[in-house]
Amino acid sequence: xxxxxxxxxxxxxxxxxxxxxxxxxxxxxxxxxxxxxxxxxxxxxxxxxxxxxxxxxxxxxxxxxxxxxxxxxxxxxxxxxxxxxxxxxxxxxxxxxxxxxxxxxxxxxxxxxxxxxxxxxxxxxxxxxxxxxxxxxxxxxxxxxxxxxxxxxxxxxxxxxxxxxxxxxxxxxxxxxxxxxxxxxxxxxxxxxxxxxxxxxxxxxxxxxxxxxxxxxxxxxxxxxxxxxxxxxxxxxxxxxxxxxxxxxxxxxxxxxxxxxxxxxxxxxxxxxxxxxxxxxxxxxxxxxxxxxxxxxxxxxxxxxxxxxxxxxxxxxxxxxxxxxxxxxxxxxxxxxxxxxxxxxxxxxxxxxxxxxxxxxxxxxxxxxxxxxxxxxxxxxxxxxxxxxxxxxxxxxxxxxxxxxxxxxxxxxxxxxxxxxxxxxxxxxxxxxxxxxxxxxxxxxxxxxxxxxx
Length: 454
Prior knowledge:
The chain is of the alpha/beta class.
């Protein structure tokens, strides 16, 4: 594979440019399209285009920008740790009073910037404080990375006007290479490394022991499903670390804020993000079972007949019904169609799985240690104060809608979104467990890594 790069200058913001990365085959026998036009919310069956979803863009009611206070809490919790590690670990011996080399920072998983900008400010101000008395403060170059379908327009329109850095966008999946060799001094990623590169293939294969039919995540699923997710996560994190190892300079630092779950939790008195994803799955299953009576249109007599039949029996393939209504004959096949005509099909639900995995501290540490390019300088568990900002069922539902809606639209389309999250809100509101933010026991693992000097 070859990577082609293009820089696009943003004339509205002179210090801004957009860097596009496109993977291309070098095999002349393989035909690839020169131009593919995609719109947010488009459904695609082309596996080469899967994963082209992102957090909700813009600044509307369901946008990530308006519904990411939970993630902002992670940045606030990590602030003193990042400042302390930069104060002790950044090597200023390489900087001199005449050095004009910029200090380069990359944020992997920036979304629309609402929480990325405060993090970049923390990093740049900590570096300035570290070197201002001993060397000339360098220019800061910041590379904002996220999925190709991310709303970079909102990101660049939202850049702080008084920022102390030059900005560029780097679209593309972060599990592979995105930047030149040894081009980054400080890498950062927050609330992004729980996303897998794709759903594990075995989970969607009905011939596999790990087929996850009837569920949308590994929570409460069979051991084989969990193992498929766990193995895929380990490979993805290893790929991420290998890519960053090539992009970071020797001695460069990387701060990771990784969504995770505690090693042990009491499911009766607490919940985590995977629990909420499982609840979304139950809403999808309910919608697949619900009969959509709008389908009957004007055939009201048949609708009432179906209602009466469904009260007393379950129609199976071994039964046959021939019924005359308004001089029209309806056979079992039509009745069965009505029975199965839900808002969603069961097949749609069975073929959908969330591509996310929430690790535990011991597992993440072991994965990092197997990669010999980094040393672990600090690793701590953070309690996210942002969870206390989600004080109602509607606030919690909208927060998850801002995160997952693009992914769900890719598979189910836009038509079901309002009903799906209305149902989800109702289920949250009906459970005292979800109404108390203190019952939410998801954790954030803070890891500071240093690139070993080769």
